[in-house]
Each structure stands twice: as C-alpha cells, then as structure tokens.
Amino acid sequence: MSEQPTPLPDDFRTWLAERGQDAYALVWVAKGSEPTGFEGTEAPRVGESGIARAGADLSRITSQDVAHGRAETLRRWLQLDDGIRHLAILTTESGTLREHTPGELAAELLHDPANDEARLTEQLASWVYRRNAEAQQGLELGWIAAAASWTCHMRALASYPPPSVLAPSLERAGELDEPTADLVVTTGLRTVDLIDRLERPYRTRTELIEDWHAVEPLAADVPALAPMADWLLDQIALRDATAQQLRAVLEPDLTDYLRDRRADGALLGTTLVLDAARAAHLAQARDTVRAYTAAAHSGRESEARQLLDAFPIPARDLSTSGPAATWRENSATAADAVEDLAAQRAATGAEDSTDYLADPELLHAATSYLAAREAQLHLRHDALGRLAFPAPIPRDLPEELAPVAAAQTQRRVIEAFGTLERATEALEGQLLYQLQQPVPAHRRATTDAESDLLNRALGVLEHTRTDGVAFDEADIRARLQEAMARPAAGRPASTGHDEAQAQALAAAPAVPGMDR
Fold this sequence. Notes:
There is one protein chain. By secondary structure, this protein is mostly helical. The protein has three domains: 12-233, no CATH class; 247-467, no CATH class; 473-487 and 494-507, no CATH class. Helix content is 59%, strand content 5%. It contains 23 helices and four strands. It has helices at residues 12-17, 70-80, 102-110, 117-133, 141-154, 163-173, 178-197, 205-219, 226-238, 241-250, 255-262, 264-267, 276-296, 301-310, 322-330, 332-348, 354-358, 360-388, 402-417, 420-434, 447-467, 473-485, 496-507, and strands at residues 23-29, 61-68, 86-93, 96-100. A four-stranded antiparallel beta sheet has the order 2-1-3-4. β3 and β4 form a beta hairpin. α2 packs parallel to α4. The termini are far apart. Residues 486-516 are annotated as: Disordered.
C-alpha cells in the first residue's frame, strides 16, 4: 500500500475492478463544481464527495491507497483523514463506481461476528479525539467540529458518538466531564436536524439563509459540509432576483454542451468534456454569485453593491440587431440558445409549474434571470456577428466617422465578454469542444459549419487585438509633466497649489478601467 498520493490511472474504473472484489480505493477529491448550472445541481449527500455520480469529473481525484476488506479500509481511512481534504471510499461493480461513507463500513463491521468490536471502538475514539485536537478553532470549539465530523461521516453507524466512543476520546483530552459530553451530543443532534432539512421538497429563502448561517462556520473544519454550504448559497441565489441577474451576465454560453448532455440516445455512450476555458469562466461566475449572495445575507451590503456595480446588468433590447440576426442564422449553437431561452420562459410561466407556484420568490428570480440573459445573449450574438460578418462602411458616412464605426465592434466585444482576451478564451474553448471526437450524431451536420464560423470570428478578433495601441504609462506621465511645466500664452503664473496638483497628477498611478 502506498503512503503518497499517486496519479490517477487512465481508466480508473477498470483499474480498480482489476484489484479484486473486496478492493476499496481511498482517493482525495479536489473541490469542483458541476458544469450544468444552478438548477441541475442535486442536494449533496452529506459525507459523500459526489465523485461517483453520473457525469462527475474524475480528474478531480488523486489515488491515495487501495485496501482490501472493510476492516482494513476503515482503519486506513481513520488514519489518513486530515479534516481538511475530502477522502472518499470507492468501489466498482460492473464498471460503475460507488461511494461509501466510513459509517457504512463501521455499521457493517459492528454486525460482523468475526470483527473485534473493542478494537473498532478504540479506532473510532482515537479519530474523534484527533478531529478535536486538530480542529482550527481549538479548545472547546474543537469538540463542535469533532461532533459535526462524526455526524457527517459516521451517521450510518450512529447520529453522534456513543458513550463507548466518546468517553475514551474525552479522557484522552483530559476533559471527561458532563458539560463537554453534552456539547458533543447536542452538536451531533443539531447537525442531524440540519441534514434532514435538506430533504424537504420546498424551502423558503429565510429557512435556507438560516441553515447556511449554521453550516458556514462548521465547513472550515469539516470539509464534508463544504458542499452543503455551497449548495445552500446556490439555492438562496436561485430565489434572489439580483443574484440571478448577476449570474446571467457572468455565465458563459454552454448551450452546445448542455444539449449534448441531454441527447443521451444520440451520444451512443460517449461522454464529452466541457472545454477548460468555459469551465473556468463558469466556475468564476458561480464563485462570484456565491460571494455576492454571502455578502448580501451577512450584513455586508457595501461588498454586495461593489460586485453588482462591477458587472452592470445589460439593458434589454426589444429588437434583434442585424449582426445578431446574421450570427443566429449561421450558428446552430446561437439558434439553439435562443430556442432554449424561449423554452425556459414557457416552462417558467406554465400553469402546471408547481415549483414556482409553491415559491413566488423563485418565480420572480427566474423571470429576472431570463430577461437579463436575453439581453446578454443579444450582446454576445451582436458582437460575434460583427466579427464574423463585418459590415461595409455606409456610403454616406462622413470620412471622419469611419474609424468610429469600426471601433464599435471592439466596444461590443468588450461589452459582451468583458475583455478581448476573455472573448478569445471563450471562442477557443467552444471551438475545441466542437472538435472533440466522436461528434454526437445529433450535430454531425452542423459541426463543420460551426467550427468554420468560430474560426472566422477568432481570426478577426485576433486582428482586432493586435491592432490596438499599446498603453505606455511612463510615456503618458512624461508628456503630462512636460505639458504642465510649459507656460501657456496669456496664462497667469502658476501658484504653489497648481504646481502641487500637477505633480500629484503626474505621479498618480493609472486608474483601472480608464480608456486607453
């Protein structure tokens, strides 16, 4: 058995199956986000990483160990768990991964007549003590982290540490007293109640906020609770109209990827991976929306306002521009995006939409998202249409306005994507995604044309980027100093205040966001 993490085998499922029927893989699971949007995210199963779910990104895992049998696997897990990273237990059957919690293995061992119950109890007590001693909060609060860790990982065995486990742990810490024991038990029961509430079909935003405030402080010491904290923030954001408008502005267009995921029959068992560029943009969008939601519901209104001011919501256009219409006529993905948006709007307003009828805040936020998303899609399609199908200079346009008209393409691209570099990343990522093999059957007739269109837009975009004039801060500062020092005809002699102001202007750093 290895003591250091090892790279993931190329075909992890097959590799694990070859280790034997009683083989359990211990793997570290890095934090990640599901690339399917806020709505498609299932409630987390507390104690599991979710890495065994269908479509999970296996590149997030690093193999640590392979143990054989429940007893050895649990022993190794209790030794290796560090309270910082998520250590998952995986098995495979018929090529399908399954994730186990340590509590499942402990419960099975407890009912096994061949198992040494005293040894198992001692191992569990040692782990509980270590979770207290190594908790970041320290002192008494360490027992809160230990109790929450137990509930997350060992709930299949017991909701909180039983006396046979808790007493040796407290004794090791020199805190074998009734108040501390009551604290551990109370924390365990409170955490169980918190987890149970996730299973309710309808929750108000107020209830979700209360639960998030309860989970968030614990997540620092209990990594198994981090997915719950993030999921609660996402659910709060789904009921916050302003958060959904921010999301509409920041999320990349994943129409091609989402349609491929839905077309299971046409994919013939193939799994296409979202390109790295748009996956990174999606993760940035989700983190930003979570940051806004956390600030807005934690009394940090100024921080929330700063995020909103940094990414203004686009005004909704009532008509489609010529460049946007041309791009949609030639891009199957763009046409699909408009069609999907219309379908979402129809589903949101449907009479049988019980989710929205049960939660008016959810309906209002969804409507706000769709309106902002329509405007954002229009900006992107307009910018891409100008790149791929540049319009000739109007015949009657004054010569002096020709450069102004040409500059509108660059302005539109920046307005739609944020920067020219970010637009390039998004287009390159989408192109790489389109070229993945094998091509799903449902878009074999459109992939070549889509790829050519993206290449054309990329070519013009690269030309636009290289045509820009480099910003030389030192040169501008020197010219400013020269201009301020040169006396102007008919201008009175400068005062000390004027000279001080000129020097301050010359020495000041460039202002972020200034037109260059």
